[in-house]
Design goal:
Elements lengths: L4 H11 L2 H21 L3 H10 L8 H10 L6 H4 L5 H12 L6 H8 L10 H12 L8 H10 L1 H18 L6 H14 L4
Length: about 190
């Protein structure tokens, strides 16, 4: 499939605030750098990075319509976790409106917030690129960026711990995919001797 990068950039510029547009472009840039370092497809990384937040600022009822139109049924936890809507609706939008049929790109968008067990290399690249994009300024972002330069799974583990600790501190629910991703990363990369 031929991807129209200029069209995708103009699309997100028209759909997102200036801050979110810049974030999306920064994620695409970080994704390409990570793809180059770790051997993922750079073009797919760019496309998924640009489009990962395409639905971030859309009304929730519109996002739910896209999710349902894509044949997904939201769990009660997902319905009550507004922060995961955009990853689900973004993947649906890319498939339905942009005719993107590459499952790896769609999954990279679909799981960029929660992660999941069994992520592909591209999915891990987008998940990490979203955490380290240039405008991010959360505590320890520099540690995360350094880890991403050395080992992708180590960076992911760090970000998952950060996310889980942040959510528990807020007494917020944690999506089961995030817990599964955390366990999977440990099981496959940090086994006890």
């Amino acid at each position: 499939m031929v991807y129209n990068k200029d069209y995708y950039e103009s699309l997100i510029k028209s759909r997102l605030s200036e801050y979110r547009f810049n974030h999306s472009m920064n994620v695409a840039k970080s994704a390409v750098e990570l793809a180059e370092k770790y051997g993922a497809d750079k073009e797919k990384a760019y496309i998924a990075g640009v489009l990962h937040d395409v639905m971030k600022e859309e009304k929730l009822h519109v996002q739910r319509e896209f999710i349902e139109k894509n044949g997904e049924k939201m769990t009660l936890l997902e319905i009550n976790s507004k922060s995961v809507y955009h990853q689900m609706s973004g993947s649906a939008y890319a498939k339905i409106e942009l005719n993107i049929d590459d499952e790896d790109i769609l999954n990279a968008i679909r799981f960029h917030t929660t992660g999941r067990r069994g992520m592909s290399l591209l999915e891990k690249v987008i998940y990490t690129a979203d955490f380290i994009s240039a405008e991010r300024n959360y505590p320890d972002v520099d540690v995360m960026r350094e880890k991403a330069k050395v080992n992708l799974e180590d960076a992911m583990l760090y970000s998952l711990k950060y996310t889980i600790n942040d959510l528990t501190a807020k007494t917020a629910v944690i999506h089961p995919d995030t817990i599964e991703c955390y366990n999977w990363i440990i099981e496959n990369n940090f086994k006890e001797d």
